[in-house]
Amino acid sequence: xxxxxxxxxxxxAMNGHGPYVWASYAITFAVLVxxxxxxxxxxxxxxxxxxxxxxxxxxSDIASGSVE
Amino acid sequence: xxxxxxxxxxxxxxxxxxxxxxxxxxxxxSIALIVTAAVWGLAFAPADxxxxxxxxxxxxxxxxxxxxxxxxYIMAISGAVGLIWxxxxxxxxxxxxxxxxxxxxxxxxxTGSIWGKPTWGTWWEWDARITSMLILFFLYLGMxxxxxxxxxxxxxxxxxxxxxxxGMVNIPIIYKSVDWWNTLHQPATIKFTSKSxxxxxxxxxxxxxxxxxxxxxxxxxxxxxxxxxLRRENRTQWVNDLxxxxxxxx
Lengths: 68, 250
Hints:
The complex is a heterodimer of chains A (68) and B (250).
Chain A: H1 8-13, H2 18-64
Chain B: H1 4-9, H2 12-19, H3 22-44, H4 58-85, H5 89-120, H6 128-149, H7 153-167, H8 170-180, H9 200-232, H10 237-249
Helix pairs in contact in B: 3-9, 4-5, 4-7, 4-9, 5-6, 5-7, 5-9, 6-7, 6-8
């Protein structure tokens, strides 16, 4: 197995096909990163919201005297 | 007894807890495979004798298209299981599969379009393969829209499951489109029943990328399903405990 290009500049240019190839890879990797990050952010947001509700519930328990 | 595993599979909590240890493995495996295959395909695989370097787009175009189709099966089958056995979990999987499938179909359409320009001299052609993939994209979008169109969770799930099943008609059309019609799109490169029309030096990085995409898909589908489980079970004790545990760790 060997590197198929003469130089790094040659690798980037890809005989004139560079813009097509690199654009395709860039778009694909952007989508993959989005797919991975978005559920992680959603989970974070969910946990944050639940914690807020737990605190509210505790506060109302204390206010109503059900918890000492 | 024999059916116990099947009913457990219907339990969102069991599923959530069972899949937790899988996540780091799937993440490591999919990132390693995708990065290695990308470097291999971009720099070390030989150039195509006809298409030159533009063919290197195959290493992402084909895996994305594979997963766009496989994702549709997963979505439709989970919808069917949810409808038949009235289980909650399959509907959550079905809902999570829709946006992932839509994005992967989008990637295969866009990369195909970019590949088409230097190869066919056009960005777009109303060719049978391309048009049927566009319909797949719209089916996925329809699933996302339908999920949000109903007030009641149950109604939304049942309606989208029916849409997913009806949309299955499109899948064999996509597969066979390159054989049934005289298309601009090239016929299948990888064949399971006969010899592939691609040299091993180009095939191995492609297979590696396909496996990497499958692992990545599994990871992302799990992550999305797990968030959906938390949202739908947010009033249960186990989710409450889970949230407090995260709170304590932080």
